[in-house]
Amino acid sequence: MLGTISRAQCLGVLLHEFVSFGVYVEENGFQILAPHPASSLATSTVRMLVAEDDASLRSVLERGLRENGYVVDAVADGTAAIEHLRAYQYEVAILDWRMPKADGIEVLRIIRERGVRTPVLMLTARDALTDRVTGLNVGADDYLVKPFDFKELLARLNALQRRPPLTLDPILACGDLTLNPSSRELRIAGVVVSLTMTELALLELLLRRSPSIVTRQTIATQVWDDEAEAVGSNTIDVHVGRLRAKLTRSQTRLETVRGSGYRLVAV
Question: What pLDDT does 165 receive?
């Protein structure tokens, strides 16, 4: 059993104590108990984002979530969180309230204004009612106050995944090309164009990053379940070529940036 550790003993000190059922961490009042072995809450591959500037906490969250079946992308500041949430499709995200470059509230405000519907759990030491109301009002779906039990975090993430998606349906556009991510419908100059599921996933990724370059590694990770299937072969080139052929009559151009990747631009 893990014994009781006083706040005075641990203040200002990072303590890691590994026990048979988890990992206990305390740093300036932060406590987390991560269960081990992994539970089965994430029964299939679930991609999620963790945005937390504290390296120790970020490491614990990454490890614990991966052990429970999640595919985790982790960033250390708000600007990186915004870029990831705009570029990639996540089933759920964890945002820390206090982060450099952009705090969790600013991240929420920006992504909701830009149509990102990813369910967000706000993680923070701020437990005042006004703080919780502020977070929820700007677009957080749930709120967890430090210190917390890791099993509660997993339960809340599982609950967020069971909720129906937000009703907002942002339309992605470039030139005369529009894509509704919800209905998976592509239109060029108002005319519906048929795409395969892989082509749709590839186009959505390019649209979300347009006019920025999307690397081959990013495409492999985000479009294919098994990135090894795409990396090291001509699979990506084949699908890009097929997609490019279907966009030839649009006012967009799918460019190959040699040595870097691909980008979608209006012409």
Answer: 55
Q: How far is CA 192 from the centre of its chain?
A: 29
Question: How many angstroms separate the CA atoms of 259 and 125, rounded?
Answer: 44
CA-to-CA distance for 137 and 160, rounded, in angstroms? 17
- Run means of pLDDT, 10 residues per run, the chain, 267 residues: 35 30 39 44 72 92 92 94 90 92 90 85 76 76 85 90 61 89 84 91 88 87 69 83 94 92 92
Task: Please tell me whether residues 179 and 247 are part of one structural domain.
Answer: yes
pTM (whole model) above 0.70: no
| Among candidate residues 130, 162, 194, the one where a domain is terminated | 162
127/180 same-domain check: no
What ranges in the chain are assigned the alpha helix state H?
A: 7-10, 55-67, 78-87, 104-113, 129-137, 150-162, 197-209, 216-223, 227-230, 235-246
> Do residues 177 and 80 share a domain?
no
CATH code where residue 41 lies: 3.40.50.2300
Confidence (pLDDT) at 142: 87
What is the domain range of residue 180?
172-266
Per-residue DSSP letters for 100-131? SSS-HHHHHHHHHHTT----EEEEES---HHH
Inter-residue contact 119 to 92 (CB < 8 Å): yes
Residue 113, both tokens: 């204004």
